[in-house]
């Protein structure tokens, strides 16, 4: 049996977004414990010629018979993670049916998990907001992520966000942690509630997005317009923590085979 790894991320019309993802995947694939195993960086949508089926075909052309599918998404609450799983023949986690159809794949498929909560990611977020922190014992960190209105997916988002926010709080020595989703629109209400409950603490808003773009630059600032908070819009890429996460997931699967 020949192993191969298919990394799947969302995709973007911005070439820089695609480049940052590709560089992180390439760095993980070049690590000594992964080197020699075919790795393909694919995208759910937008990036023509690099879509999921393209990746499957390219890996199988290299003789891959044992395929590890690794979703480079932030939460198991992402509907995209579920619809990709459905397209590989896995049962849906809710009644929401994906529209990707079924992929053509001959290899035996092993479907991995997205990021959710992770020590390396907490360290990444802390490094992103370090310039904003003055006295962490008098500050609250509030993670803001995309989220979902669908009940099962919303609960999964919330669980992962709560764990990651608390990990970040402990790591940075902050007074308090909180979370909010953009879908449903919680950000402003949650920030106002925080400021009423903890008026003596500054709030540092931490965006949980893989790369800078529309959500970090426009949506979050517009949702929080007129409110008092600290924010630099720093996203997760580029950062070696993403490479380390990818490498750990890849090597763990290769060792468990």
From TrEMBL:
Q: One Pfam family this chain carries?
A: CbiX
SUPFAM superfamilies, sorted: Chelatase (SSF53800)
The keyword Hydrolase is assigned to this record: no
List the InterPro entries hit by this protein, alphabetically. Answer: CbiX-like, Sirohydro_Cobaltochel/CbiX
User: Has the keyword Lyase been applied to this entry?
Assistant: yes
Kindly state which keywords UniProt assigns to this record, in alphabetical order: Lyase, Metal-binding
Question: What is the official name of this protein in its record?
Answer: Cobalamin biosynthesis protein CbiX
